[in-house]
């Protein structure tokens, strides 16, 4: 066998190497011309207004002047029609923070509050500043009646306990859509079936028993209540079946988002993936939601501080573009690789969205259309 090898022990990937540098610049110019440079990844904060008596620690607040909201972070604003309740963890600490921008009090975890403080959601004149009114545990917030935007339960939904809520992701506040979220359905079913669990946290029957999953999306192969259907098919017994629930979640999300059709609301009859951004914008325009960003995974600085997302300019690659995804799937189908690798790549194509591709310091190739960025 004839083998040709380059035995040089170095390869420069900065502008010191003009050939490689030109190649990278060409790549990014091509991507930009294809429309793949977009805005940052977004979460939607759903504003769940407290419409019952405020907790004792918040009695000094006048809700007529400063309404109080629990903020639930979601990637699926189009499912808000199916809200039946709001989940909190009993031992997580939540901060009530004052927002000068919105003249409101928001309840979230301290970590989420710090992210918000750098995204002009609290006091734009003081980035990073937190005006904390009170600190409460989830248990101190159970049983509150809330107004859920778009929810068919117009009389209100309630804050309930869920032991799998994480303080390290989102806001620590989770809005529950048991029709299309297996975790939510399993937890709501457990709460309905376990009176002792309800009594432990002072949850009355009327806060739980009347609330049933709502048919909001027709999902091919899973019907109008996909989460309960998959739970039954997989014989998931409780909210503690974490591995099965994760598998169920991925299945319901994949089929529902890409092939599902809305059954309710202004966009009834539209594909879910087409309606998502429209519904998000409508919620924001009606002051019932806001855009929020955070690191995908925990990021710790060299000094030991948790990193936050700051509102600033950034260039992204739009890996969520459907035309690109379609071309990538065609290319994947032609690859001669093991099934495990193919399945992993296919799953990645499903969730892959916007990806940051630039920074303002260090070594590398400069953006050909904006040389302040590498």
From TrEMBL:
This is leucine--tRNA ligase. Its EC number is 6.1.1.4. GO terms for molecular function: aminoacyl-tRNA deacylase activity; ATP binding; leucine-tRNA ligase activity. The keyword Signal does not apply. InterPro entries: Leu-tRNA-synth_Ia_arc/euk (IPR004493), Rossmann-like_a/b/a_fold (IPR014729), Val/Leu/Ile-tRNA-synth_edit (IPR009008). GO terms for biological process: leucyl-tRNA aminoacylation. Belongs to the class-I aminoacyl-tRNA synthetase family. It is an enzyme of class 6 (ligase). It comes from the Eukaryota. Keywords: Aminoacyl-tRNA synthetase, ATP-binding, Ligase, Nucleotide-binding, Protein biosynthesis.
């Amino acid at each position: 066998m004839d083998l040709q090898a380059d035995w040089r022990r170095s390869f420069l990937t900065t502008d010191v190497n003009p050939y490689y540098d030109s190649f990278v610049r060409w790549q990014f110019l091509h991507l930009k011309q294809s429309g793949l440079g977009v805005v940052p990844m977004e979460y939607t904060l759903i504003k769940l207004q407290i419409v019952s008596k405020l907790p004792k620690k918040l009695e000094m607040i006048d809700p007529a002047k400063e309404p109080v909201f629990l903020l639930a972070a979601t990637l699926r604003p189009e499912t808000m029609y199916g809200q039946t309740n709001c989940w909190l963890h009993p031992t997580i600490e939540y901060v009530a923070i004052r927002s000068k921008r919105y003249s409101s009090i928001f309840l979230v975890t301290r970590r989420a509050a710090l992210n918000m403080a750098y995204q002009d959601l609290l006091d734009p004149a003081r980035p990073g500043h937190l005006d904390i009114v009170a600190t409460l545990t989830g248990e101190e917030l159970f049983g509150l009646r809330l107004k859920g935007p778009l929810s068919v339960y117009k009389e209100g939904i309630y804050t309930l306990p869920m032991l799998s809520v994480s303080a390290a992701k989102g806001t620590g506040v989770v809005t529950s859509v048991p029709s299309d979220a297996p975790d939510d359905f399993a937890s709501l079913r457990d709460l309905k079936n376990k009176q002792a669990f309800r009594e432990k946290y002072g949850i009355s029957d009327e806060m739980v028993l009347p609330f049933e999953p709502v048919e909001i999306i027709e999902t091919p192969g899973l019907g109008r209540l996909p989460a309960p259907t998959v739970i039954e098919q997989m014989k998931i017994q409780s909210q503690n079946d974490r591995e099965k629930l994760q598998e169920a979640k991925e299945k319901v999300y994949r089929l529902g988002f890409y092939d599902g059709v809305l059954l309710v609301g202004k966009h009834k009859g539209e594909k879910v993936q087409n309606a998502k951004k429209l519904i998000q914008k409508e919620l924001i325009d009606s002051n019932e939601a806001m855009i929020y960003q955070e690191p995908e995974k925990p990021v710790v600085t060299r000094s030991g501080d948790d990193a936050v997302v700051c509102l600033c300019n950034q260039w992204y690659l739009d890996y969520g573009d459907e035309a690109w995804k379609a071309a990538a799937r065609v290319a994947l189908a032609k690859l001669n690789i093991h099934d495990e690798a193919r399945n992993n790549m296919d799953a990645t194509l499903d969730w892959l969205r916007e990806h940051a591709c630039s920074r303002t310091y260090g070594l590398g190739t400069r953006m050909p259309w904006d040389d302040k960025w590498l």
